[in-house]
Amino acid sequence: MKNKNQFGHVEKIDRKRVHFINITSFLMGFAAALFAYVISSYFKEVLGTDNVGFIYLLAYLIILFILLHLHKIVYIFGKSFILHLSIILKIISVFGLVMFPVSFTGIWFLVLYTIAGTLSWTILSSILESFSVDNESGRIRGMHLSISNAGYLMGPLLSSQLLNKYGFNGVFLASLIVYIGIFIFNLIYIRRTNHKFSTKINVSELLKKVYKRKNIMRIYYVSFVLEFFYALMIIYVPIYLLEKGFTWDQLGVAFTVMLIPFVLVQYPVGLMADKKTGEKEFLIFSFFILGISTLLFYFSDSKDIMVWTTILVLGRIGAALIEILRESYFFKRIDGNDVDIVDFFNTSRPVAFIVATAISSILLLFFSTTSVFLLVAIVCFSAIYPALKLADNKSERDVRKESAC
């Protein structure tokens, strides 16, 4: 049975399909984590410099172009086809990395991998929305993120061990096996879920459409800031801590521990946002945590890995809260047919990476790596104002109170 919610969206949940999507998300999270914290070291080994941001800049310029036009591709081929294609591209890129280890050729395969990775997560999120209902957005998205992050949690420790024993090839080969498994699973269980987009508009019309929706623009900036944080912390934290004398074994443990909040807090907070609080207040609080933790990265000069692990965990608590709250807020404001708006929202990641890598590349020409952390902290605090201006979504408790009046 389909129900109309507070925003006028007519939706029906398909829990079986949601379950299959969550399994895919777990496997993709695990495979992505194998790569995440070794890529910057790979670039540094090939290029011989810490200033590797321009490679990410190239990749995310291409991603931005693709996402702005993705709704047109969905219009022609549908969602599941694009998901399968993106995973095939990942398999090709990882196979190329196995065949051309630690080389300039490998950099191009990593660029392809980054592009395909963003595309697969974007389209998987859109497919999930097609089988969800808004009044359960917080818990559905919270469970989805918790499951994908459980997979992600397993990656850093295994990745660091493979890197120490077998080099980059060990990491890439393990990832290749996982992606082949993901492709087979998706062919069997995520088929005929095309949900072809019913309206075709150009980029300028899309931008005008979104700009009129002020709360969408505000949550877009919230998303931009979170992705800005991820962009620079993923690139420069491993490089910075390795320069301070820590080993990959130590970092593997620290990076695994720091991801625990993503598994523990996202579903409960999403459920609470649905039932009692909405998202706005938690968002404001979370950006304070994120900004303070990044400032600690700038000011601390500790040689103790436990101190850095504590700072990393604090930052990831803030990031985990923001991640589920932005997802819950945004997907309550749109439905499964708003493919164009979903694609626009997902441009926050490439836009953030483009801006972050461009600014950091210039910054590092004149200042040390720690200047990047100060930049990130300032940007994190800048999101508090748009979060304050958000119109809060009604929780189930609010709806019941209105019904009782």
Describe the structure.
The chain is built from 19 helices and 2 strands. It has 405 residues and is mainly α. The longest helix is centred in the middle third of the chain and has 30 residues, at 137-166. The model has no long low-confidence stretch (mean pLDDT 83). It has a two-stranded antiparallel ribbon with strand order 1-2. It has helices spanning 15-36, 39-47, 53-77, 79-99, 104-130, 137-166, 168-189, 203-211, 214-243, 248-258, 260-264, 266-277, 280-299, 305-333, 339-345, 348-363, 370-382, 384-389, 396-404, and strands spanning 3-4, 10-11. Helix 1 (15-36) packs antiparallel against helix 5 (104-130), helix 12 packs across helix 14 and helix 13 packs antiparallel against helix 17. It is globular, with a radius of gyration of 20 Å. A hairpin with a 5-residue loop joins strand 1 and strand 2 (10-11). The protein has one domain: MFS general substrate transporter like domains (Growth Hormone, Chain: A).
Write the layout of secondary structure elements.
Elements: E1 3-4, E2 10-11, H1 15-36, H2 39-47, H3 53-77, H4 79-99, H5 104-130, H6 137-166, H7 168-189, H8 203-211, H9 214-243, H10 248-258, H11 260-264, H12 266-277, H13 280-299, H14 305-333, H15 339-345, H16 348-363, H17 370-382, H18 384-389, H19 396-404
Antiparallel strand pairs: 1-2
Helix pairs in contact: 1-5, 1-6, 1-7, 3-5, 3-15, 3-16, 4-5, 4-7, 6-7, 6-10, 6-12, 6-14, 9-14, 9-16, 9-17, 10-14, 12-14, 13-14, 13-17
Number of domains: 1
Number of strands: 2
Backbone shape: globular
* CATH structural architecture: Up-down Bundle
Structural class: mainly alpha
Overall mean confidence score, pLDDT: 83
CATH topology: Growth Hormone, Chain: A
Q: Gap between N and C termini, in Å?
A: 27 Å
Task: Spell out the CATH superfamily.
Answer: MFS general substrate transporter like domains
Approximate strand percentage: under 5%
Which CATH C-level class is it?
A: Mainly Alpha
Low-pLDDT segments = none
Radius of gyration based on Cα positions: 20 Å
Number of helices: 19
